[in-house]
Amino acid sequence: MKKTYNKIVLAYSGGLDTSVILHWLKETYKAEVVVFTADIGQEHDPVLVEERANSIGACKVIIEDLQEEFVSNYVFPMFRANTVYEGEYLLGTSIARPLISKRLVEIAEQEGADAIAHGATGKGNDQIRFEIGSYSLNPDIEVIAPWRIWDYVSRADLVNYCKEHQIDIDASPDDPLYSTDENLLHTSYEGGVLEDPSVEAPESVWQKTANIMDTPDTKTEVTIDFRNGDPVALDGQPLKSSEILSTLNTLAGKNGIGRLDLVENRFTGMKSRGCYETPGGALLLKAHRAMESITLDGHAAHLRDELMPKYAQLIYDGFWWSPEREALQAFIDKTQEKVTGSVTLSLLKGNINIKSRTSDFSLYDPKVVTFEDDENTYDQADASGFIKINSLRLRLNAKRNK
């Protein structure tokens, strides 16, 4: 028996899928539908989004600028761990979902809605991220996932639905050649012409990063100031978190930095080919590691790096609000207490080079590390006992094995 709802909150982009879903929800459940659009740095026209939602019959349109919250409370905490999934992916889509889920749940409560809905497909990771995130914040929330319950199976079906129900949207069965997801951290491209991993992605796919052949022939330099592991200024100028990431996106993008073509393992068990552009994120990862190299204790850094893949997996799989992710975050944040100082990067033809690292909290002591006269700060003779103690078990094993 089909459930009944009086009011539903829909995560709405204004595109083909969610526009059809908006109409379908109204027709199927005879319910009022509140649409919610999170502005997290994607290119969109809020006026067009609102007009389209109203024309389809939304009872209310909520569009929120969440860019600063997204970067400050989600992106930067993730980057404190130098987080990458499967060695390469900077989790640009994954890290946006907890914030959207949080606002969906909050708006549902605020509007007295019975359920929330999203446009994620039944094959992808986002359905899991949206729903696990929502249940983590409201265990009683009802979630509607149309792609798992309706009879439509393709973009062509949705285009035909729009024609049948006179939904005004500029779409055709053949356009686009791939799907995109965009926010201030990254842009992803999947599906369509990208589904064959043996075929190079067309150059036209890349929207945020210049082709190496078209990048400047002279170096671009930028200094990033960190405080407690987070970027706080560029070239000495304090900026908001979202402004820092936006500026770095531009600098890196014009130098051809931040492209990734990856076949990843989805949480649902299948392999998927995705192309990602994370220009500013690539700079932040490089600079943050450089900052840590002189300010973070080696053993603390190694332990954090051992835990990072688990932390990345939790974010990728949608467990941002889990107690284990929060516990790991507490440890990660503890390691960042002295990660403060400045790193200067040099950018050229897709390359990122470290020019300098400075910090008032540096653990790097030239007097200790020098190959010249160390002014008796380190007695090299001490190394003999150190080596003998650390090799004791190996020498005992060797004797036994003879």
Brief sketch in words of this structure:
The chain has 402 residues and is an alpha/beta fold.
CATH homologous superfamily of the largest domain - what is it? HUPs
Order of helices and strands: EHEHEHHEHEHEEEEEHEEHHHEEHH
Low-confidence stretches: none
> What is the count of DSSP helices, taking H or I runs of 4+ residues?
12
Rg measurement, Å: 25 Å
Distance between the termini: 75 Å
Helix-and-strand structural type: alpha/beta
How does this structure look, described?
With 402 residues, the chain is of the alpha/beta class. The protein folds into 3 domains: 7-175, 3-Layer(aba) Sandwich (Rossmann fold), CATH 3.40.50; 180-296 and 336-358, Argininosuccinate synthetase, chain A, domain 2; 366-401. Helix content is 41%, strand content 19%. The chain contains 12 helices and 14 strands. It has helices spanning 16-29, 46-56, 67-79, 97-111, 126-137, 155-164, 241-254, 279-295, 298-317, 323-335, 366-369, 382-401; strands at residues 7-11, 32-39, 60-65, 115-117, 142-144, 179-182, 187-190, 220-227, 230-234, 237-238, 259-265, 271-277, 341-348, 351-358. A 5-stranded parallel β-sheet has the order 3-2-1-4-5, sandwiched between helices. A 5-stranded antiparallel β-sheet has the order 10-9-8-13-14, with helices on one face. Strands 6-7-12-11 form a 4-stranded antiparallel β-sheet, with no helix packed on it. Strand 6 and strand 7 (187-190) form a beta hairpin. The radius of gyration is 25 Å and the shape is elongated.
